[in-house]
Amino acid sequence: MITVALRGMLGRKLRAALTAIAIVLGVAMVSGTYVLTDTIKAAFGTVFTTVYRNTDAIVTGKSAIGGNQNNGEIVPSLQESLIGKIRNLPGVAEAQGGIADAAQLVGRDGKVIGGHGAPSLAFSVHPHGDQHFNPLTLTSGTWPAGPREVAIDANTAAKKHYSVGQTIGVIARGPVQQFRIVGTAKIGGVSSLGGATMAIFDFPTAQTLFHKQGQVDSISVAGENNVSPTQLVQEIQPVLPPTAQVRTGQAEARSQTNDTSGALDIFQYFLLAFGGVALFVGIFVIANTLSITIAQRTRELATLRSLGATRRQVRMSVLLEGLVIGALASVVGLFLGLALAKGLNAIFVKLGIDLPQAGTVFATRTIVISLVVGIVVTMLASILPALRATRVPPIAAVREGAVLPRSRLARFGVAGGLLVIGGAVALMLVGLFVGDLATKWRLISIGIGAALLFIGVAILAPTLVPPLARILGWPAVRFGGASGQLARGNVVRNPARTASTAAALMIGLALVTLVGVLAAGLKTRFEGGVNQTFIADYALTAEDNFTPIGVAAGNALKRVAGVVTISSVRAGRVRVFGSRISTTAVQPNLAQVMHNEWKAGGPSTPARLGRNGAFVSKDYAKAHGLTVGSRLQAETPTGAKLGLVIRGIYDPPKGAPYLGDLAISVPTFDRAFPTPTNLFTLVNMRGGDTDANTARLTAALRQFPDAKIQTIKEFKKNQLLGLTLLLNLLYVLLSLSIIVSLFGIVNTLVLTVFERTRELGMLRAVGMTRRQVRRMIRQESVVTALLGAVLGIPLGVILALMVGEAIRYPAFTIPWGTLVSFLVAAVIVGLIAAIFPARRAGRLNVLEALQYE
């Protein structure tokens, strides 16, 4: 039977290949995700290991409110005098201070190099001393040794065609300054830093540039030969102030690697979820394809039974076919994942997510999981067709046109489908309404419920197909004549097969609809919040619209003729009531550029904050029982304690809360935060938004290439860019499931062309033209695709409503235009899927078709 199964599969190469495509694509997504994220993790690991390779102990600042620089917290600098104290310790051989900050490089075109949120790294070196602690390697030139010298990363030098001796712009704490490039450098073991750039200065220059005279960001320490790193840490600890911490070099590398890996793990799970969706869709495709194949092999299987094959042998032959297809498809998908990893990386680069790269990591775990998942999914999809094959009676071998008998459970299809749907709804209701359930478990409950809902609808679909197909096939009958009527009849002929084919597309479109509905709600609420909040003429932001910018750019606008109001908003984090929260700093004239709804206080509240005033959001006030006059204490990353009095409570717009839970005055903020930055600066001009005013403001920012002035309309539009990019990314990833379902329709049509070869020959013999045959197949494909859309789009809306309820979503909007576009997309999918089967049907030789068995 093994030989029979393998020979049979080899005799149906096209069918086997079409069956395997779903698994190939799903496994490729799983494999590509692991390869991409493992490669990025390895690159970060290499960077951090290289940075601390020669460091026995590292002393850094410590945020008083917890967190570190890797998760965006501000970490205070250290006093330079601490270096001398550490050097004098008996176990210390050498100690060296360093500066690590951010500085953007500016190209010849006056634009910032990098951008899109990629880090702009800045480091200090000690050019005339021992380079023992320096993690960088020169690729050309020398280390900078003067106030107007810089070394840049070799990757930027190569991409932007810079060489030693040329000048380049640098933005640190103020306007752009020109530096002479004296060298290029790289971090060993990393082929690319992604979109990141590096600017390297000598130590005194770095202190001056970043306003850290007499301070350092870290102190690297080497111990004596007989002192272990752990002993060195214990020796250093007593001399440190409360704002400092010490770790071994290896521990610091592990800590930073773990912080990065934690963020990448979320990214990995995010991508794996889409691979799982593709494989879930693939189960329907494979099960349907194998079922059709078995139906077409009824006489072949019956002949085997009549020759003595047992039900168990027939079942095992089908499972063996599934195993072989699954194994081969998984191997192909595994290696296709290598190419997909590069494709995913290219997509992320286009979206502005350019991450470091090292040598490709193809881990054993990737191989094992990819192969196991692919084979297991295929075997699961093969179980039902295998059981179906055992129902072929031996007598069918002598009956032409014999078909498989109905399953004993078939009459319970409707009841079974409704039961599964009921269980799915119950599970989702648990996720929605059970109290004290964490959001994670709510989403898991809804996710499992959604999978069961898809299965339940698929079970129920054969009952729904005939009435829906008659409605959806009406245009084909009305405008397609005999071809359209035959196409609709073919769809209804085998409702179980049609339902299974449409179910794959149903899942993909349901998930796309889910994303579209949630995005539409968020967009509507976000746009409403933005339009309600911002009433200025202009907004000053970073080039990428989101990165905070130095206060110098905002100050430069104060000197522009015609400026009536200029008001900046700054941001940071503080600890209040034991938890870290976002805080913003506002200026007294805030009400002239931003509109806020006040529950207590009013538009004049920002002007009455003074040294110790604050206002809070409505929800935060409710959670902590705060009213006007309440007192609270906020602790900053530097350990400063701010005693604050509540002077107002505001109600932030849903979807666009531009002010934090806590807001204080700019002078109070600047005293507590050593390096304040602006989220944005809002400007009112005499005469409002005019070309002349825009030109004057733009001219004032000529020395600040990292900043841009926008009209308030442009600002509002750009605030949606991040949401649009995320939405596009989700659509790209979900398109994989649509592609899998497309191949499902192709499979079904190709196999039905085989199955109906004699029928098609008869149609051609009685006068149907090749063109009419092709049109019939196309119309059949379109009706099947529309069935998937009609089932999937309403399911997606229902799921969006439930997911929104689970995560306390602030808005629910049905985007009718988007849903219509999904319906049109389903028609296009149907037309594309029909191209190959229609051509194949049109090319059938009439005489050969009439003789086909």
- Counted beta strands: 25
Shape: globular
Structure annotation, total helices: 24
End-to-end distance, in Å?
Answer: 23 Å
The largest pleated sheet is described as: 11 strands, mixed
Mean pLDDT figure = 83
Structural class, by secondary structure, is: alpha+beta
Q: What percentage of amino acids are in beta strands?
A: 15-25%
Give Rg in angstroms. Answer: 33 Å
- What is the helical fraction, as a range of percent? 40-55%
Low-confidence stretches: 396-403
Descriptive overview:
By secondary structure, this protein is α+β, with helices and mostly antiparallel strands. It contains 24 helices and 25 strands. Strands 15, 16, 17, 18, 19, 20, 21, 22, 23, 24 and 25 form an 11-stranded mixed sheet that branches. Strand 9 (167-171) and strand 10 (177-187) form a beta hairpin. The chain is globular, with a radius of gyration of 33 Å. Mean pLDDT is 83; it is low at 396-403.
